[in-house]
Amino acid sequence: MKSGVAALVIALARSAAAWDEERGVLLILTAGEETGCVGAKHVAKTQRLSMGGPMLVAEPTGLSLACGHKGVLWIRATAHGRSAHGSRPDLGQNAITALARAVTRLEDCGLPGTHPDMGDVTVNVGTFIGGTQINLVPDVAKAEIDVRFVPGIEPSALRDQIARIAGKAVAVEIMDTLPPVYTAPGGPLYSMLVSAVREVIGTVSVRQPLTYFTDASILSSSLRAPETLFFGPGDPDSAHVVDESCPIAEIEAAELVYERLLQAWRSAPQTGPLDDR
Fold it and tell me: What is the Cα–Cα distance from 41 to 123, expressed in whole angstroms?
């Protein structure tokens, strides 16, 4: 993401000298995206931002264009049992066993919902905690579940489905949820971005919508962006790995694409501000 930030800042700095006051561009840099977009939520809540223009997110896409991403639903599932000594498990009720059965059923059953471009709703049990020591029957166990969902699916309906699968012995609550983002191809920003990519790189690659979420979950709606697109340097599959990196050539190419896009935006008929992140 630092690579996308660098490319955006340089492109905007190089374009600023030729900018006039009739049409603006807004650069938003936030922190805390992976902990529920806390930075974007703070910006949307505390700042007066220009609204109504399209938005470009410099997320790592390998210099491919993406038109959206899945939403996220974070669930906490809790099972309560009855403690007893490990030598007499018959006197207790094992919370770990109850919760393990529930999350296994969830993994086996999955959740309904699909999108022609984004694919299926996915489920991942990210954490599982229970028990205090080996010789005690655990009386509580908790799991945190990561659900990635698509447009047309309500988080509350997914929560209810998880509760039905888990059963009455398991309490299910929503920790956080962020909506999916999707823009149908062919809008003004899409056309300008395609032209800019073709001019700089030569070929245009359009990839499937992203499986992960971004700050666009918050900013796209709060800025009332009619289009939200994703294009940036770096391979998303290399994120969070040892020696995470981005080729310098991709950063330079992205900067040139952003610069061409800003030039096209300046000369295009006015419809509103362009909000770049």
Answer: 25
